[in-house]
Please model this.
Amino acid sequence: MVFRLGLLVAVLALSVGVLLVGMKGFGSIVGGLGSAFGGFVAGVTSTPSPKPVVVTVADPPSLDQPSEPYTAETTVDLVVTVPAALIGSSDHRIKVYLQLPEQPPTAIQESAIADTPKTIIPVTLEKGINDFTVTLTGPGGESDPSAVARYVFDAVAPKITLTSPKDNAIVNGKAVNIKGKTQARTTLLARNEASGSSIAGTAESDGTFTLSLALSPGVNMITITGTDPAGNVTETSLTVRRGSGKLTAALTASSYRIRRTKLPEPVTLYATVTDPDGRAIAGADITFTLSIPGIPTVTIDGRTSESGKASFQTTIPKGATLGQGSATVLVSTSEFGPASDNAVITIIK
Model:
């Protein structure tokens, strides 16, 4: 303002000088001074028109992270939070990007900003990994993207593979340890139909699991149900028999009734030895004894094979008399102690 007043004074002084030089142009000078002064006053007193202001989109929106990224649903809701100044803005929109494995992010849709702090945007999932980001667009351009929110679409039920015990196995003890493998983080529930007891667990990051379930005497029908992180459910079953908890020796013979008229007659005794869990015992000391009426008792020692079996073959001579005889097997182990079994062999007419 001060500058403009000084300029006005200078113009007036110059005009006066020109007037003194020649009065002939007085009217023109006065007119020019009036125009100059009016323009000056207009320039000083007028209000300039405001220029349009473009708001720059600086802060990116944020995406809520899912509590569980795995889902069997085909659609999910993205929850977007925008800067407070843009809540309800009609000049800005939310742009959604989807990135699939080994592909660049692709814009899939746009949405208006809600009048509330959070905007809900439903999106459709592709099979497998879905990485979502969002940006804000407006007159000032497009913001940086939000952090990634990952969803994994999985509609396939997990597979459960049992590694121990085998189906129909004999288990000695009050409980059975069920071991297997399935999808990582799958929730497992084992239920014994015989006792009504159940146990729950979760598969490790490598998919392995162990469940210890109480057993009832006799046959136990066990059902194992698995629910993966996406909510898909699968089921498998297992049958085990609770054993006696003792070493077992089982004796059989090639023949249990032998006609006297056909003597001499060969006979073979077979023995199978198993530990308290029903597994074959190799290298166990074993003794066969055969007593037939009318002939001396025969005894032979041996050891079980890798399969837990042993056999003894002999011949019953003509001197045997009618009546019942017996065959016996006696087993001894350093770990489980002794066990025995017997069978009746009869000499008939």
